[in-house]
Every structure is written in structure tokens, then in C-alpha cells.
Design a protein that fits this description.
By secondary structure, the protein is an alpha+beta fold. It folds into four domains: 16-91, Nucleic acid-binding proteins (OB fold (Dihydrolipoamide Acetyltransferase, E2P), Beta Barrel), CATH 2.40.50.140; 106-187, OB fold (Dihydrolipoamide Acetyltransferase, E2P) (Beta Barrel), CATH 2.40.50; 199-269, Beta Barrel (OB fold (Dihydrolipoamide Acetyltransferase, E2P)); 274-364, OB fold (Dihydrolipoamide Acetyltransferase, E2P) (Beta Barrel). Helix content is 17%, strand content 37%. It contains seven helices and 22 strands. The protein has helices at residues 10-16, 57-60, 87-105, 150-158, 183-196, 273-277, 324-327; strands at 27-35, 40-43, 49-52, 68-75, 83-86, 109-111, 115-117, 120-125, 128-133, 165-173, 178-182, 203-212, 215-220, 223-228, 249-257, 261-265, 286-295, 298-302, 308-312, 333-342, 347-351, 363-364.
Amino acid sequence: MSVVTKKISMDDLLSKNDIKVLEVGDVLDGTIISTKKNEITIDLGSNGFGIISKKEINSIRTIPAGDKVTVSVIDPEMDNGQVLLSTRKASKDKGWDEIQRLYESQETINITPYDANRGGLLVELEGIRGFLPVSQLSAVHYPRVNGADKEEILQKLNRLTKEVLKVRVLDINRKDNKLIFSEREATKEDMQNKFTDLKIGDEIDGVVTGVIDFGAFVNVDGIEGLIHISEISWERVDDPKNYLKVGDKIKAKIIAIDKDRLSLSLKQMTKDPWMEQIKAYKKGEIVKGKVTRITPFGAFVQLSSSVEALVHVSEMSDDESIDPEKIFRLNEIKEFKVIDIDEDNRKIALSLKDATPKKKTSKSKV
């Protein structure tokens, strides 16, 4: 009687014993058997034994025998038949998996940058280094400076390396080791909710975050506001830094609401002194004023602290080729005739040629 034997393949053996053929990059759970000076041995169960690479021993030397560790395969079969393992790579792989989950769920997390460069902030999450670009900072933390002063930008960014920031994962590419964060995305919904509670005409409290040539930026409860130079004071403003500085707490009025920014006015928190002082002038009368600016088309004359008027070149002389700089000197005081008052547009027109010397009943408002 012959006995028929069934030939068992390697796949059958592996399937029967639930043994997996290990490949580079596989992540496994193992148990520490022993820790030596140059070697840590790991029990991989049905997959045999493995050792941790020498360069990683210091990072796990304190873990006692019998404890579980997660490892990844560096070399599935060395010359001695053992598996070369890594805890660092396993940790990094797990880190990428967690970051991928955060990216897909758009979960908001807290991070603290560990360094900065001129382009943004350096961040580490789950053992993986990433980047938070300047362009992705919220309005509160965006470094507002004059022009493109890179050193001042870097100084402002360095101050953020000790702060906890709320961010979302904006972009991820494990293959290219790319990880980008965004604070703007993390605060977008909150900002939108705050915008719904605001309307033009509202008076708000804010803190000045930057003063530049054309105005000042203001933090309004996390929303960015801008006070244009023309809205700082009823007076003529040549340099916003003479009126505001970083850190100033102010009250301002909302005059426009853009997509993600408020336009604010500081001067509209008070009455327009022009409207009060203009009442002292009447069309046709002779007044005295101080020349403050001379241009090819005319000269500007200060009549009072808040009222400035224009003498057009055509009202200087009957000579059409007259040069304003030959008639006026800065800061000199002359007599003029008021020829028009436009309250709606806050303008007064003066005439030099119609102001005759014989009229001595002039009013001085300087």
C-alpha cells in the first residue's frame, strides 16, 4: 500500500504558522530581550529575533527587558540571519501616519516653533520637522514692517518661537519630507464668526501692531485692521509714527469691512474741527493765511489750525505764465480773498489777485 504525500509549499508553511515574510519598512511590535553595550535584542515572535542598530541604543537604553517596543525593518535578513531594526524610523512612520490623519481631518492643534528664519517658523510635530511660512501666519502674528526689512522681520518672528500657536496641516508629502502648517487656516472659521458680529460704524478697541509709512495696523480681537494715514487725524499727517506706536491701545471706528480686514478711522472718533472753524469764513471776504506748500498748479495756505485752502495758479495773477515759486515763499503770510467754500468736499478756494491792499478789514485766523 503506497502512501501519497502532499508536497507543502513555503507559502503553505508561512500561512500555517502565521509567519510574515518581512520587508524593508515593515512596522512590528516586539519585546526587549536584552540590552547590551552594542546591541539590543528584540523578540519578534513568529518572525524570530532582531537587533536594534547601534546608533539608536542610547535613545532606548533605559527601557527594561520585557517591555514592548515598536520597530521598523531596516534589513529583513542580515548575514547572521537576524533582522536589523530601527525604533527611530518606526516612530517617524507612526508620526507621518498621525500627521496624515490630522491633515485629512483638518484638526486644529497647538505647536511651539523651535526656531525661525526670514521665511517663517520651524516646527516639529511627532518627531517630524515642518515649516510655518510667514504668509500663513494670522493677522495677529504677521510681522508688519516698513518695506522689506528682513532683519526686522526676523526679529519679530524670533519672538514667536516661545509662543503656543494654533495651526492646521496645510500640505504634506511624506516622500519629499514636506510638512507645511498654517495658522491662518486654523483661525479662519473663528475670524469669520467674529466678522459677522461687526458692522460699519461700530466703535472697537484695538492694539497697534505695526506703524508704517501709509498708516497703522491694529489687532481687533484677532482681526487685522488698518488705519490709513488719511484717517489718523483731522490734521495733515506726514508721519504716522508721530501719532501712533506699536503697543498703543486705541479706540477706532469701522469705516469699511473687506474680506479679511477692517478699515478703521481714528479721527472719526472726534468731531471734525474743520466744520466748526469753517463757520468763521464767508465768501468774498479778505483773510490772512500762511503759505505751507507751493506746487506748479498753485499754493496751499493755512487759514487756521484745521483749515487749509488752495490758491490756484490762475488766481495768482493775470499773467498766465506766472511761476508760483516766484510769488510765494514758504511760511510767509499774505492776504487773500475767499472766492468759494465747498463744505461737502471740505475745500476753500482763495484768490491773491482779487485781494486788494486797500481792504484793511481782514480777519486773521492763523
